[in-house]
Amino acid sequence: MTDTISAIKGLSEEYYEEVLSFRRHLHSNPELSFEEYNTADFIEAKLKEMGITDFERKADTGVTFLIKGHKDNGKTVAMRADIDALPIVEANDVSYKSKNEGVMHACGHDVHTSSLLGAVKILSQLKDHFEGTIKVIFQPGEEKLPGGASLLIKEGILENPQPNRILGQHVMPLIESGKVGFRKGMYMASADEIYFTVKGKGGHAAMPENAIDPVLITSHIIVALQQIISRNSSPKIPSVLSFGRVEALGATNVIPNEVKVQGTFRTYDEEWRADAHKRMVKMAEGIAESMGATCEFNVMKGYPHLKNHPEYTEDNIKSAKEYLGEENVVELDLWLAGEDFAYYSQEIDACFYRLGTRNEEKGIISGVHTPTFDIDEPSLKIGMGLFAWLTIAELNR
Fold it and tell me: Whole-model pTM?
């Protein structure tokens, strides 16, 4: 074990500059979800340089292949990195700033991809240190419904061979560079998009008796829907219902014909999630009808909630402490953002952990999905090294 950790750390140092160049190239050349053709080509080119040629495409821009250890022990562990970027204009003044105007790696997927490439390079050099099989997954489209993970699963990514467990890594700008975070059990929320339109009858605002006011009716619906969260869900299940866009397009003296609303619903229980969808539709339509209007209510179902397998995650926590030291492994809180790695976690034992990338002395403090997001780049050493070690440790466990 100690020899393997030493070997991985040595290779992480040796490969750092190369993996750093991967990250900067990817950051400079981001591509949106399901459009990552150049990114996939870049990944395949780097794999060929490592002597890996038996990869295949999935969902057009996904890349997957196997790494086999020195002995087949019947176990398979999957490693996943997402490769897509976001529609954000980058505000950073750095040499590796995005060259694609309006597209930016603002969620660290360039880090995930380069870290996995580094881990693959390490694992390819250390096949005599582990038994079993590693399934490597470079996944497209994490940032856009229906999520690349769901498409890969439909195309059989969890078959032939079927992984016993799957490991995912994601940057976390709230955690200092040099540290990582884990959480057992439920971690990230399901994420559904809510769209509804209330149709009434417009008119002069000074003569409301001649109108069916969709603005007033919409306000009743928005307030009433919160009752579903406060009175129909168990307090033990975190849930959030928020509305971020209300479009009436009337005026100070004009009642519009309709109001359009957009929001999000997030929770941690799939049965309650389905029940809440039905309750929201019934309540909104009922209120509108009772007030003389109609309501077209649509729930665009997003990613399920992400659950970290307790035993597998505990094993990874122990292994991370062996690699980094106990003081550099922290416990994560619930995170109500969505992540399509959740699809894997609904199918097989999964562990999704966080890579610390914050460095206040360097001014690297911006959150993900912001125009100034960046990372403390030496965190790539842990990004590739720990990824490789957790996989080896699991295969040999």
Answer: 0.94
